[in-house]
Design brief:
The protein is an alpha/beta fold. Helix content is 50%, strand content 12%. The structure holds beta-D-galactopyranose.
């Protein structure tokens, strides 16, 4: 083919392409006749999808999400109805959203939101509200009557200036001490599951493990955010719920003597931990306990989903009270350090109607009673059926009702993303310096900047 002929053919093709494009732009879909209109409806229907952004990829959490996806994709009233609207799992790996939140921030800044994203009830959600990145969903609450069935403490944390901004799917507890009863027994220690313990008792137990079972790590620890959770629960245990809550007010005193004691305790606890903590996920650190390589681990109760869930779903299928047991972090018995995963309606959600349906579904009894027993959380709804929940969660359901409440730092309830980032920096420096005075100064500065 000569260059000239080729050029002519390309030009002709380009011209036809432009013509088609121009026609598509000027002719409204309805002007193309009845049949075509139905076709075009079909094709836009085909494009319907539900993009949900979360950080649930690991043991326990992925299994919980899979349950929701299954209902969404198979229930005719939801995504499987007409038009079909499949679930698109836009999850980003990394416990506690350690990677996901940064990815989400970029997407929101670029005005490319998913249809719904995970955000913790409380100050983390408030960040998105104040930035205008999520829209009120009062109409969903009204239509489904959610306000009457959700825990009132939760409603408070998702309401801003009279408007509701997310649907909470669960309630998690952060101040849980997990342990391996067989490892403890070998060191002559017995702890009754759920029994109150003091910090001093715990230190005595950690010492006993150290001397009697030198190959066992007394307290397993994982990457940075799990260190923050250990710090948070150590502070709560020393300050109690009232002193802890005051830290998040303008007058909060992060420089107090009790705070110094908390930080000293944190430093002491670190001496019982594994040296490779920063390279371990929360699941890795938890598994050390189940494998008998560690005695204790402080982690949220998503751990129960991971420990007891089926191996088919990437969990460990272990027996509660036999292979593992739990109690409140020593010194914090009777206090429920809580957080809640909630889902939002972002401004400019590409499939708005699907997102509205999703949020209505998440608040339903069916979704909450299917998701939570697998996820290791108790439902945000107060009318859930306790019989569907395992041994740990039955205990947690009772504790939630009886305990005083504290709002988690690590999981966005008590502090904003910016404040959390400043605490992260302070912890990072402390982990290498072990300088308590400098650590406390940095935490005082973070409070002054963010409170
Ligand atoms: C929390 C979240 C939990 C769980 C955990 C570990 O922030 O609320 O649902 O996923 O992180 O990734």
């Amino acid at each position: 083919m000569s260059k000239k002929t080729m050029h002519a053919r390309v030009s002709k093709a380009a011209f036809l392409g432009l013509l088609m494009l121009a026609l598509a732009l000027v002719l409204p879909a309805s002007g193309l006749g009845g049949k075509k209109s139905a076709d075009s409806n079909k094709s836009s229907a085909k494009k319907c999808q539900l993009q949900v952004f979360s950080w649930w990829t690991g043991g326990g959490e992925a299994a919980g999400l899979a349950k929701l996806i299954h209902i969404w994709n198979t229930n005719p009233k939801l995504g499987a109805g007409t038009p079909k609207c499949p679930f698109v799992n836009e999850t980003v790996a990394g416990g506690a959203g350690s990677n996901a939140k940064a990815v989400l921030a970029q997407r929101l800044a670029a005005h490319k939101p998913p249809d719904s994203f995970q955000g913790h009830a409380g100050k983390e959600l408030l960040d998105y509200i104040k930035a205008g990145q999520v829209v009120p969903i009062n109409f969903i609450y009204k239509a489904a009557g959610f306000k009457k069935v959700m825990a009132p403490q939760l409603i408070e944390q998702i309401t801003y200036k009279g408007n509701l901004y997310s649907v909470p799917v669960n309630i998690h507890r952060a101040n849980v001490l997990w342990y391996n009863p067989k490892v403890l027994a070998a060191a002559g220690i017995t702890i009754k599951a759920g029994a109150a313990m003091t910090y001093d008792q715990w230190i005595a137990d950690l010492n006993a493990i150290k001397t009697k079972e030198p190959s066992v790590t007394p307290l397993s620890l994982g990457e940075e955010w799990t260190q923050k959770q250990l710090l948070e629960t150590t502070i709560l245990s020393k300050l109690g719920p009232t002193g802890y809550a005051s830290l998040f007010t303008k007058a909060g005193d992060w420089g107090s003597a009790d705070m110094t004691t908390s930080l000293d305790r944190f430093k002491t606890l670190l001496t019982y931990t594994n040296s490779d903590a920063s390279s371990l996920t929360w699941q890795d650190a938890g598994k050390l306990v189940l494998d008998g390589n560690a005695a204790f681990n402080v982690m949220g109760d998503w751990q129960d989903g991971y420990f007891s869930g089926t191996t088919k779903m990437g969990n460990l299928a272990k027996k509660p009270l036999v292979d593992y047991a739990w109690t409140a972090v020593p010194g914090s018995s009777g206090v429920f350090d809580w957080l809640s995963d909630s889902f939002t309606l972002p401004k400019g959600a590409p499939h708005h109607d699907a997102a509205v349906k999703w949020l209505g579904f998440l608040g339903s009894l069916k979704a909450q009673d299917t998701f939570n027993p697998v996820k290791g959380s108790i439902p945000a709804r107060q009318d859930a059926n306790p019989k569907l929940y395992g041994t740990y969660l039955k205990w947690s359901l009772k504790q939630w009702k009886a305990d005083k409440l504290a709002c988690s730092i690590t999981h966005g309830c008590a502090v904003s993303n910016a404040w959390n980032a400043d605490i992260d920096t302070a912890i990072g420096q402390f982990m290498s310096s072990k300088d308590v005075a400098a650590f406390q100064k940095a935490l005082v500065a973070a409070h002054a900047k963010n409170a």
